[in-house]
Design a protein that fits this description.
about 40% helix, six-stranded parallel beta sheet, four-stranded mixed beta sheet, about 20% strand, alpha/beta, 10 strands, about 210 residues
Length: about 210
């Protein structure tokens, strides 16, 4: 990355972290995947019960591999051969986890987390249940405000995920949201986390790179 662009992004991340802290959420800037894993090990104790939401960022940053390392009791929703009932059980047990890992569809410079879900299990766990929520994201997820967060989901996150999941939705063909009524629609639950009552619950770890959708 060009050093000047990196500086601009660092300043944007700094503003976002300051806003998160004002909203009772912790924010961290890490410089590498190794530093990311080190920060997670500080935040989540050995042998904790952990779970995750659907996220390409967690795969791309190596978080999923780390959760599978044996250090934690991982409710792994990605294990081969799981039945729909198995997955449903994991979703429900996730609400009782010590730490829940996820990314975010967008994070505003005002320190707000904007997310859109299909089933709702991910946003539900972010809102309530797990003792800690660890949000991992790249600088590409940072936007100016909620309106930009909505536009980001409609123009990037939703169509990219629809393409990945091979859904029968218009955005898979057009590349942008059509606000469809398809049975395969993945944009069903919309949430905005503006603030936390518990200061030590949500932790947002940001890398100055591009990850996920």
């Amino acid at each position: 990355m060009d050093t000047n662009v990196k500086w601009v992004n660092d300043k944007k991340i700094e503003r976002t972290i300051n806003a998160l802290e004002k909203n009772n959420m912790h924010g961290y800037l890490v410089s590498s995947k190794d530093e990311l894993i080190s920060k997670i090990s500080e935040l989540v104790e050995y042998d904790s019960l952990v779970a995750c939401g659907g996220s390409q960022t967690l795969f791309q940053t190596g978080v999923i591999d780390y959760l599978r390392s044996g250090k934690y009791d991982f409710l792994d929703r990605y294990v081969d051969g799981l039945t729909p009932k198995d997955i449903k059980d994991i979703y429900r047990k996730s609400f009782c986890s010590d730490a829940y890992f996820t990314s975010t569809n967008a994070i505003t410079e005002n320190g707000e987390l904007y997310n859109v879900d299909g089933n709702g299990n991910r946003v539900a766990a972010m809102l309530y249940g797990p003792d800690k929520v660890i949000v991992v994201c790249g600088a590409n997820k940072i936007v100016k405000d909620v309106n930009d967060a909505i536009r980001r989901n409609e123009s990037i996150a939703a169509p990219a995920n629809a393409k990945r999941l091979d859904t029968k939705t218009p955005c898979k063909s057009t590349g942008y949201c059509m606000d469809c009524n398809s049975n395969d629609r993945i944009c069903c639950e919309y949430t905005l986390i503006k603030r936390q009552r518990s200061k030590n619950r949500i932790h947002v770890i940001i890398l100055n790179e591009s990850f996920g959708y």
